[in-house]
Description:
The chain is α+β, with helices and mostly antiparallel strands. The chain is 38% helix and 23% strand.
Amino acid sequence: xxxxxxxxxxxSLVSWEGVRAxxxxxxxxxxxxxRNSLPVIIGDMGGAQAQVxxxxxxxxxxxxxxxxKGDVETALWRNRTLAKAWSMRRTMHxxxxxxxxxxxxxxxxxxxxxxxxxxxxxxxxxxxxxxxxVALSSLDEPITRTEMAERVxxxxxxxxxxxxxGGWGSDRKVPCVSIGRRYLPAGYIVHLLGARAVxxxxxxxxxxxxxxxxxxxxxxxxxxxxxxxxxxxxxxxLRSFGPATVQDFVxxxxxxxxxxxxxxxxxxxxLALVNVEGWPAWxxxxxxxxxxxxxxxxxxxxxxxxxxxxxxxxxxxEHLVESIHHRxxxxxxxxxxxxxxxxxxxEGVWEQHRDGDRLxxxxxxxxxxxxxxxxxxxxxxxxxxxxxxxxxxxVAFHRTS
Length: 401
């Protein structure tokens, strides 16, 4: 029999409008926060997905008042108050350095799952552990994937080869450690290290990314035990994305349903059940009063970029975007389109194109926009022009069927 989460009659009744207002506030999308609070804001939003760093910077821009070009990179590479690491769903995220262990170790079960997959496909546990130990020991300073693979191969007397394994359909050849008839791409080894330690990005060497152990890179490093980190990441998730279900938590972290249920059960006493217009979901008990009081007092309009975190926290998405427009937002191969967010709902998609000193912003609304919302979109576009370098901005609206 399929397990289901029960919905006792004591569940608090809340509206979708209240839920959207609560989440907007928790993501700092109702009102931008201060540049001085950059790490706090990124932690509050559950990290900014940073597969494409420019998209992550725009996610931060949508939440931080007066953010300047270069602020994120300064925080990453100079002040090191931010870190970039593989965490939820084993995708790259911008995260606050002081909470990096919680996010990485708390979502490490996905890396452990990938470890099991490798062991089932012809690589012995002994050999895999040797590869990981040597790879990890080499990351006492920022080095590239190629340098890491070279050190592993030299230390273990294994051949190094180049194979087309760049991901996302890329045919780019990448360095790999050859193990018998199998091989491990160096980038995949870094993924697997997530089951053993906390590894983050270092500054690029030319066009190549580098990686380093967090304990060697971050000045205020604080590690956590896996169970402690898992409990914290669930609390972090619900503070940002609640109300939610265990299935939502699975989708956000990338772990298995069985693993997620175990973490969920440990926090059961601190969770409160709510009924969102017929949908049973959970929130931290201490956040229940904030949820009940949440309200949208004025039109809240934001231009969110590719892969914005606000769109990645739930399995059920009708509250974010109408089903008829779903594929215009959630596209093939995991691409999430830039969206126009109005009061917590997606009301269109947008794109930008720079032409000299002019920034052209094209908006495709899903329906008719009020004058107030259209004006707010233009205001956001002007702010985007300031962030991009005080560019002149042109906004065009194109309604499509």
